[in-house]
């Protein structure tokens, strides 16, 4: 007899496991005779509430018993199907041994076995709504505060091969990562079970208005992508959704509709429903592409810009490229005309700014305008009659991937200017700054690539007419500032590898972009960024770009693509295969040695900004008289000052001497003091001393 004991509902006396089995069997027998389905369901809810009250063998026996009961009584199954999905999810959430092979996880195979039966014979509408509600409750598994039992540790350890154990640098950490991955896998399996059940229930619902149910499916998936932000990145999830769209067929119409309605009415209903369903499917496809770009930007960027990533994705990226190829083909089957749709989005952005730029006087006004438009777009405004179309974010991914990875013949018309492309990007990028979960790094990089290719082709950013409009300059400044903000916020959202990738690309992008701006405009943007940008990493990048613009001669026959991180965007084409670009016209006959002139007046401005940075670092109001977080920025200024010639170098020497003196003062204040913050500052001072040229200071 089992040692498991569960308290009875009506008495305090414990029940043994065989007694519980007898109670469930008796309840099923009574239900068959009386058709009292609620009573049977109540018994099941009571004894299936806490699966951890039973051992593994008992759980399996109970679920097998439940499967046998409902498979033999289809009427009972149909009546109680709406309550079974949460019961099965609870079963999967029990404390089970974690086995690497999916087939060895008995709780998964059993749960899916019951799900299949329920999907086939349950009441379709009730089951459909239950699955919708259960998907809404799903959330990302949390790796924080997870604790492993000794039994789980032992099970996972036994499942590892000797080779895995030997290759693991930290076996305990490796086992814990496996544990976290199993939690993530369970989250994926729960969604898959619910989604498949919802899908098959949908197909069994006979309705003349299938778009009502399809809209519920689409909204449920969109909410799931928000609630399960990380889990929905999983390639298996994206494949499931892709297959749903690829194989989509509407459910059958009721048989009596052809008897009760005229042919004209039926024809109109079918036409309207076909239109609505297609738009919903396009919206779902758009969301899948956007989610794919959000979660797997490394492999997608590596495909067309391989030198921006250190890892070779030719092999690792194949499953992702296969899905992207399928999504690209899917877009054609959905009649998405990618270039035409992208042009349409550009025209919408042009129209938005054309109507409002007279009232826009600052970057803040542009941000307000875009956010207002975003919140009132056709995706969110149910009263809008505008046709739904893929978002610009998804369109640029499809366009760039098709053109540069798959060599599809796709071009944007020459009538679209660089400024028009920038307007479109502002409508995409500004919402990213409001909610980082919207950020699609693939879209950002692909847009930057298309923009720089456009600039290379036309050799200008702004036309003569656009240069005479202050609004055009404001758009350029806002655009560059938004890209800088996105790049600078990457470390808090993604990983260091993403930061490295973006920093490399951004440095090339901003350098080439500024080279094609008027000299005065480029200088004003650079010095303003160095002085006022709140992101120190961006300031360091701009200092390096500033130095190159000052010290580099204007390029003549230099191809922008060749110089763009030394990349080749076309398959089979090397950098040496490219024909020389059309020579750039000189910006001014008085400036032949650099893109930006470093005149005495501009040197004075830089020295003033340098002094301001010094004051921010050695701030007396800061702990111990130094702001450690700003030291890296100060070192960037020092390196810049040491590599350029200044007419009044005495002022540079003065700042460098002040830095040396301030270091000594802070070091003296730290004597005989201890603590973690003191150690941080001491290390900071060593870093600062190492990067400060003693020869220059003592000159």
From TrEMBL:
GO biological process, one term: cellular response to oxidative stress
Coiled-coil spans in chain: none
Classification via InterPro entries: ARM-type_fold, YAP-bd/ALF4/Glomulin, YBP1/2
CC terms in the record's Gene Ontology section: cytoplasm
Pfam families: Kinetochor_Ybp2
Name of this protein: Ybp1 protein
Species assigned in the record: Pichia kluyveri
């Amino acid at each position: 007899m089992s040692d498991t004991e569960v308290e009875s509902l009506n008495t305090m006396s414990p029940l043994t496991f065989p007694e519980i089995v007898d109670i469930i069997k008796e309840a099923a027998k009574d239900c068959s005779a009386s058709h009292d389905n609620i009573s049977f369901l109540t018994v099941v809810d009571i004894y299936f509430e806490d699966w951890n009250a039973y051992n593994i063998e008992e759980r399996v026996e109970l679920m097998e018993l439940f499967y046998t009961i409902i498979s033999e009584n289809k009427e009972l199954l149909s009546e109680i199907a709406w309550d079974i999905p949460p019961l099965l999810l609870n079963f999967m959430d029990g404390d089970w041994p974690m086995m690497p092979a999916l087939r060895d996880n008995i709780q998964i195979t059993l749960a899916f076995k019951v799900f299949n039966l329920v999907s086939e014979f349950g009441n379709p509408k009730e089951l459909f709504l239950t699955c919708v509600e259960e998907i809404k409750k799903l959330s990302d598994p949390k790796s924080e505060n997870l604790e492993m039992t000794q039994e789980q540790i032992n099970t996972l350890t036994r499942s590892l091969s000797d080779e895995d154990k030997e290759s693991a640098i930290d076996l305990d950490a490796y086992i814990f990562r496996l544990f976290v991955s199993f939690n993530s896998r369970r989250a994926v399996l729960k969604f898959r079970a619910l989604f498949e059940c919802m899908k098959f229930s949908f197909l069994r619902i006979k309705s003349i208005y299938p778009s009502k149910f399809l809209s519920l499916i689409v909204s449920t998936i969109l909410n799931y992508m928000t609630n399960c932000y990380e889990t929905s990145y999983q390639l298996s999830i994206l494949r499931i959704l892709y297959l749903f769209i690829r194989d989509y067929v509407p459910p059958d119409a009721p048989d009596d509709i052809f008897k009760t309605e005229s042919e004209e009415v039926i024809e109109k209903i079918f036409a309207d429903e076909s239109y609505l369903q297609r738009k919903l499917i396009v919206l779902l496809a758009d969301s899948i592409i956007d989610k794919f770009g959000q979660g797997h930007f490394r492999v997608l960027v590596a495909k067309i810009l391989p030198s921006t990533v250190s890892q070779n994705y030719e092999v690792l990226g194949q499953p992702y490229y296969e899905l992207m190829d399928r999504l690209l083909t899917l877009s054609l089957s959905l009649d998405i005309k990618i270039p035409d749709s992208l042009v349409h989005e550009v025209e919408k952005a042009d129209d938005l700014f054309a109507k409002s730029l007279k009232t826009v006087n600052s970057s803040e006004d542009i941000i307000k305008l875009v956010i207002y438009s975003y919140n009132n777009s056709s995706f969110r405004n149910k009263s809008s009659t505008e046709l739904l179309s893929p978002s610009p974010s998804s369109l640029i991914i499809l366009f760039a991937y098709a053109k540069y990875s798959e060599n599809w013949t796709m071009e944007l018309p020459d009538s679209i200017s660089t400024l028009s492309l920038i307007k479109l990007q502002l409508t995409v990028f500004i919402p990213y700054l409001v909610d980082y979960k919207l950020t699609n790094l693939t879209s950002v990089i692909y847009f930057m690539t298309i923009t720089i290719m456009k600039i290379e082709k036309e050799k200008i950013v702004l036309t003569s007419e656009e240069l005479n409009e202050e609004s055009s300059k404001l758009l350029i400044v806002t655009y560059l500032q938004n890209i800088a903000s996105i790049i600078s916020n990457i470390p808090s959202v993604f990983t260091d590898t993403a930061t490295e990738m973006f920093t490399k690309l951004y440095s090339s992008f901003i350098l080439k972009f500024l080279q094609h701006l008027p000299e005065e405009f480029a200088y004003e943007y650079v010095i303003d960024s160095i002085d006022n940008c709140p992101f120190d990493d961006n300031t360091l990048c701009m200092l390096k770009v500033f130095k190159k613009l000052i010290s580099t001669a204007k390029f003549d026959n230099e191809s922008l693509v060749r110089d763009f991180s030394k990349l080749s965007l076309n398959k089979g084409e090397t950098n040496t295969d490219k024909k020389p670009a059309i020579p750039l016209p000189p910006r001014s006959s008085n400036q032949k040695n650099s893109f930006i002139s470093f005149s005495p007046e501009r040197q004075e401005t830089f020295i003033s900004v340098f002094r301001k940075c010094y004051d921010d670092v050695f701030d007396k109001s800061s702990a111990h008289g130094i702001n450690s977080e700003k030291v890296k920025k100060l070192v960037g200024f020092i390196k810049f000052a040491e590599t350029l010639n200044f007419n009044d170098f005495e002022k540079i020497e003065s700042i460098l001497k002040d830095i040396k003196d301030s270091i000594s003062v802070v070091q003296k204040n730290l004597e005989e003091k201890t603590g973690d913050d003191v150690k941080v500052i001491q290390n900071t001072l060593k870093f600062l001393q190492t990067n400060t040229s003693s020869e220059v200071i003592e000159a």
